[in-house]
Hints:
Layout lengths: L3 H29 L1 E4 L2 E7 L3 H7 L4 H29 L7 H9 L6 H12 L6 H8 L7 H4 L1 H26 L3 H9 L4 H12 L1 H15 L4 H6 L11 H11 L3 H31 L1
Antiparallel strand pairs: 1-2
Helix pairs in contact: 1-14, 2-14, 3-8, 3-11, 5-8, 8-11, 11-14, 13-14
Amino acid sequence: MNRFLPRVLMTPAIATLFLWMIVPLVMTIYFSVIRYNLMQPDQSGFIGLENYIFFVTDPSFWPSVLNTVLLLGSVILITVVLGIALALLIDEPFPGRGLVRVLLISPFFVMPTVNALLWKHMMMNPIYGVLAQVWIFFGATPVDWLTDWPLLSVIIMVSWQWLPFAALIFMTALQSMNREQLEASRMDGANYLQQLRYLYLPHLGRSMAVVVMIELIFLLSIFAEIYTTTGGGPGDASTNVAFLIFKQALLNFDAGVASAGALFAVLLANIAAIFMIRLVGKNLDK
């Protein structure tokens, strides 16, 4: 009885988890091996791996994979480097530090669509945007960011939103740092760069691994910023894997190919997650 009761109490949670995760996954696998176009639902039928082959051989596939890798790598690099810099900058007490921390963290709570619209119209508009006015002030021709530098524009938007998350994690990690060790290093004549290399960065190693792992998983599904600003263009210049799946599903109405692409994205995310979990585990064991 003592063993049976916990299992009974866990049954609703397990059933809910099953319905929420396993059933959609099975349906996605099913749709990925049949011909199922939303405009021609009566012509569905089993076609095996044709949807996977079609998705991988799509001319937009490899550009989207490259854009996804560039987007992930750039945003993670920017947020980790600037996040550490911001955390170190506001680690020492100063008047108004609490307000500064709130202001630094606030962009993370902005919805992705609102973030994209803010950058599209307020910052990057080539006519009345803030950056255009700065260019004009210095006598230069304003840059049409979303047309000339679409992927870079998306990277800037996403980095601005995820930078507070990284800074918050690093600020929290710095609170547990041994201040006596820092004072001893100063007394021994260590300058700030030496402290950064031998004390701060090793202490932040675990936090960096956590930030990279979480951002890597979530950034694989970046969609709202691309849809709201560049629409994946010009051409495929800012199309990532998530947006390519959207185009197959809701622009080409091909649920079969979109399901195959979704499973590819799930596989990619799981590979990245396993790699990062092992990395975090190694850091935690040190």
